[in-house]
Design goal:
Distance between the termini of chain A: 35 Å
Helix content of chain A: 25-40%
Structural class of chain A: alpha/beta
Strand content of chain A: 15-25%
Radius of gyration of chain A: 16 Å
Number of strands of chain A: 9
Oligomer: homodimer
Chain lengths: 230, 230
């Protein structure tokens, strides 16, 4: 993982595995606009291509986006984002692991356990991101991010009110992802080591509970007591 | 715990164990002003009395506050708040348990493990609050709250920017504590079952890390996407 630990990580192409889902499409839309080449990965190429057509048709879309099957997408990406339901997390990671060597894997997964999705229930590894790192071993560096944001907030150009907390083993990898967040027009904060991902993943259950109890669509969080550019 | 599960919990006297610390003094100041009778508990009566003198001397203080030793304080309180360092958590809870039967115990403890206080490290029970409930068994109902707020924000009358997330087994107990939060001039949100306290306690480590990295004194969090009275 020598590359990841260097001060700057050059990312030109971002592959989004599970990119046909709402979250993936929202991230793709924003990163394309920021000038990144985005690859939408899916188990079925046709689905990836359909998602690409949809992204290209979004109001204000500009940039470059392509559809590939997951393994091709992983090979093409300088950095890989995984946005899939928790049930598919382990098998998908085991499938794509060979192509991830030396790359950053951004894990967006929240380990929700239906039907009690408002109750924090972590896997034995401690969190989905820690489980991903356990599966990856030394071959890729996992960074956790984007778990608290609602996809509705990504697919248009309005300002997003929810901040993004970024956890990962090294500061260099966290900073690479913080750069992508800024380029997507979002606000991110360095939330420390990967062990802290339990907080960020679990926060999603609390926010789902707040949505239900207070009758709102997409509650989020914002860090206070800091200086902000906005 | 029949009383706690009823719709309304009448609280007139609040006992703060470890109330001689900064956090306890800040809460006492605000609850006194709101008309609650507050008891500051300490292992040594003289220390409790010294803290009471200090609270009474704060700018704008009004209300009723008394110092007692911990066991007397627990007996006098309709609701008990515990604000002590994690190292003293288990022995203190075992000491005061006999007096807590049928009462709500508000646990403010964050299980920080020096020197790595910016890394989330939970006890085997899952969180300090879950550990407290394990110790209490059926004798008291634990509610977790106030872990993310800085004491500096409590000891004056300015608006506090950090929201408070409240976890606990029953909605009735959470609502009783949400009422106290509102009366203290703060904003609280129902964050669901006690299992979710891992998120709120762990968030403190993330906020300490943000303070260090971004050079601020007291970062906090605010829930977004909800309607607020302020």
């Amino acid at each position: 993982m020598a590359d990841i630990n260097e001060q700057s990580v050059k990312i030109k192409t971002i592959a989004i595995i599970g990119g046909t889902g709402k979250e993936g499409r929202g991230l793709a839309y924003r990163w394309c606009k920021a000038g990144y080449k985005v690859i939408i990965g899916s188990r079925q190429l046709e689905k990836a291509i359909a998602a690409v057509d949809e992204i290209r048709g979004l109001h204000g879309f500009q940039g470059e986006v392509h559809g590939m099957d997951n393994l091709e997408a992983v090979a093409a990406g300088d950095l890989i984002v995984i946005t899939i339901p928790y049930a598919a997390h382990r098998p998908m990671l085991e499938t794509i692991k060979p192509g991830l060597s030396g790359k950053i894997l951004v894990d967006v997964t929240v380990p929700l356990v239906p039907p009690k999705v408002t109750k924090v229930q972590m896997p034995p590894a401690g969190s989905a991101a820690l489980e991903a790192q356990e599966i990856m071993g030394d071959s890729a560096q996992v960074v956790s991010a984007f778990q608290n944001i609602s996809y509705e907030n990504l697919l248009h150009e309005e300002k997003v009110e929810c901040d993004i907390l970024v956890c990962g083993k090294t500061k260099a990898a966290r900073e690479a992802v913080l750069g992508l967040i800024k380029d997507a027009g979002l606000v991110g904060w360095d939330a420390g080591p990967l062990e802290n991902s339990v907080v960020v993943e679990g926060l999603t259950s609390i926010l789902i509970g707040i949505n239900k109890q207070y009758g709102v669509q997409s509650s989020g969080i914002k860090i206070t007591g800091v200086s902000r550019q906005d």
